[in-house]
Amino acid sequence: MVQRVATVAFEGIEVRPVDVQVQVAPGLPAFTIVGLPDKAVSEARERVRSALIASGLALPARRITINLAPADLPKEGSHYDLADRARPDGRDRRHSA
């Protein structure tokens, strides 16, 4: 099952919508971020893991893939962390801004 969270990317002073798609699937444990992430976005996996542990939660021992769409839009910065954290445990939760 794929969970989705909406966020934005900044392109100069323009704001472009980004769809964060999180899939938790059976397989060897892994945490992969795809969709043209920069170094800060790629490092989100460690920040998300630390935040979950600090909250008393854990990443499931499954294959987690996070797709940042559209793939041709560069994703920069750490503001994607909350969207990445929103779904990796596979629970169906509602988050309010």
How is the topology of this model organized?
Layout: E1 2-11, E2 14-25, E3 30-34, H1 39-42, H2 44-54, E4 63-69, H3 81-85
Parallel strand pairs: 3-4
Antiparallel strand pairs: 1-2, 2-4
What do these coordinates show?
The protein has 3 helices and 4 strands, in the order βββααβα. The protein is an alpha+beta fold. The chain has a domain at 14-64 and 73-85. It has a 4-stranded mixed β-sheet, with no helix packed on it. The longest helix is centred in the middle third of the chain and has 11 residues, at 44-54. The model is unreliable at 92-97 (pLDDT under 50).
Helix tally? 3
Morphology? globular
Radius of gyration: 13 Å
Portion of residues in helices?
10-25%
Describe the sheet with the most strands. 4 strands, mixed
Order of strands, main sheet, comes to: 1-2-4-3
Helices and strands: which structural class? alpha+beta
User: Which regions are unreliable across 5 or more consecutive residues at pLDDT < 50?
Assistant: 92-97
What is the overall pLDDT average? 81
Q: How far apart are the first and last residues' alpha carbons, in Å?
A: 24 Å
One letter per element, helices H and strands E, the order comes to: EEEHHEH
Overall number of strands: 4
Strand content: 35-45%
List keywords for this structure.
4 strands; about 100 residues; four-stranded mixed beta sheet; 3 helices; disordered C terminus; alpha+beta
